């Protein structure tokens, strides 16, 4: 079977990460997840912060928890980070066949693997970002009929409980992203789900506070 073009592109991205890891400084901070992490220019912005440790973005667009799990060496543990920020599972939430319990089961395994391979690592689970169905383009609306803000809120409660159970931290950076109705601010989104740079700028002070803590 022919590999889908987007899969081939992401496979090449993972291989680029693998190569970059060979010359990376160990003991820094890793940001890992799917497209909402890959698109976050945290690695570039962190260079502007005085006293900030080395930061590496290892997000891969389109990935689910099941995609991330076998690649944790490249995406996290080869870098032996002292701190990891994770935002993974939003693509799982876009699939109506995936239950929150199933998602948390795979997420928990990701956390156990990281903790087992990197003793003493601090793992921060980021809350899933809200969406805005009314601001979505036609190509995105079908996805957002499944990946609703109600489903995201339910998942965030489960992620918070998972963090508490496994000794990780849960951080919700979403307040600056929300409009008065609790949706993703239309000014901050490309098509109802992904963030523009302005959206990332809005949460950057909160992320920075955790990054430099």
Question: What would your notes on this structure say?
Answer:
Helices cover 45% and strands 11% of the residues. By secondary structure, it is α/β, with parallel strands linked by helices. It has a single domain, classed as SGNH hydrolase (Rossmann fold), CATH 3.40.50.1110. It has a five-stranded parallel beta sheet with strand order 2-1-3-4-5. The model has no long low-confidence stretch (mean pLDDT 97).
Strand order within the widest sheet?
2-1-3-4-5
CATH topology: Rossmann fold
Main β sheet profile: 5 strands, parallel
Can you give the helix content as a percent range? 40-55%
Number of helices: 10
Q: What's the architecture in CATH terms?
A: 3-Layer(aba) Sandwich
Strand composition percent: 5-15%
SSE run: HEHHEHHEHHEHHEH
Oligomer: single chain
Residue windows where pLDDT falls under 50 for at least 5 positions = none
Structural class: alpha/beta
């Amino acid at each position: 079977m022919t590999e889908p073009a987007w899969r081939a592109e992401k496979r090449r991205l993972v291989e680029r990460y693998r190569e970059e890891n060979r010359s990376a400084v160990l003991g820094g901070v890793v940001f890992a997840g799917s497209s909402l992490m890959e698109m976050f220019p945290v690695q570039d912005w962190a260079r502007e912060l005085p006293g900030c440790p080395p930061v590496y973005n290892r997000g891969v667009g389109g990935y689910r928890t099941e995609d991330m799990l076998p690649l944790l060496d490249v995406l996290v543990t080869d870098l032996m980070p002292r701190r990891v920020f994770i935002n993974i599972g939003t693509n799982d939430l876009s699939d109506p066949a995936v239950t929150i319990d199933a998602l948390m089961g795979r997420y928990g395994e990701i956390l156990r693997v990281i903790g087992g391979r990197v003793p003493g690592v601090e793992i921060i689970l980021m809350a899933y970002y809200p969406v805005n169905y009314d601001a979505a383009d036609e190509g995105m609306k079908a996805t957002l009929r499944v990946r609703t803000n109600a489903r995201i809120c339910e998942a965030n409660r489960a992620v918070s409980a998972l963090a508490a159970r496994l000794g990780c931290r849960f951080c919700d950076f979403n307040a600056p992203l929300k409009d008065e109705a609790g949706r993703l601010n239309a000014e901050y989104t490309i098509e109802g789900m992904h963030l523009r740079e302005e959206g990332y700028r809005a949460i950057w002070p909160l992320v920075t506070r955790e990054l430099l803590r």
